[in-house]
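Allow me, if you will, to draw on your knowledge of protein folds for a short while. A protein sequence and the structure tokens that stand for its backbone fold form the material at issue. I would ask you to consider whether the tokens describe a fold that such a sequence might reasonably adopt. Thank you for your consideration; the sequence and its tokens are set out here:
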Amino acid sequence: MSPIKKAAEMTERELARYIDQSVLKPEFTVDEIKKWAQEGIDYGCATICINPASLPIVAPMVEGTSTGLCVVCDFPFGLATTEAKAALAEMYCSQYDIEDLDIVANYGRLRSGDLDFVIGNLKPTVEACHKHGTKVKVIIETDFLTPGQIADGTRCAIKAGADYIKSSTGFVTGVPSVGATTEVVAKMMEAAEKKIKVKGSGGIRTREHFLELIDMGVDRMGVGYRSTPVVLGMSAEEAKKLAE
């Protein structure tokens, strides 16, 4: 989207609305999930992005706040069958009030050029989510893709009816993990042609990078729980006082 003003002129609360705060590490204890989710709520982030197992923990925490739930699906590999992806999405969205569902595309098939498969593998999930009023973000794991494949993946998400195209899971191994560089985001935005929103995720750890992506027109960003105070320029204690 076109920002209402330059990112450097925005308040911390305005900036926080661009953030899905990631609380996704599989080793987190219940107390750690609660701690990082609560900090995201205090900052006023758009959503807390969590694993499905964390839904019963975090769902009660966001009730009555300006922060929503974002749940990942078929994460982080995207290799479930079409039927399994859709069934999981239906299960999550029918049981919880979920604002966004971030589904991982089968990026191996994307790299193979099997675009019809990628679209067909995503479309039933999108339909299941939209039935419940949940928006869908498609993750294409751009670290493994060429610029042409990033463009193809973006167009696949559009054809599947998704609401956002998203760069990365943040759980890449085996190759350098660079995530949402300005070059990657620019390629996604170019291919999007304003037909789908763009979420940058992975490697957003500095305030300068965060503000630059907003000024480019990114709609949402996945930011790790440790990086949120850095990109906002606000401590957890300041956020808590602001939320009171």
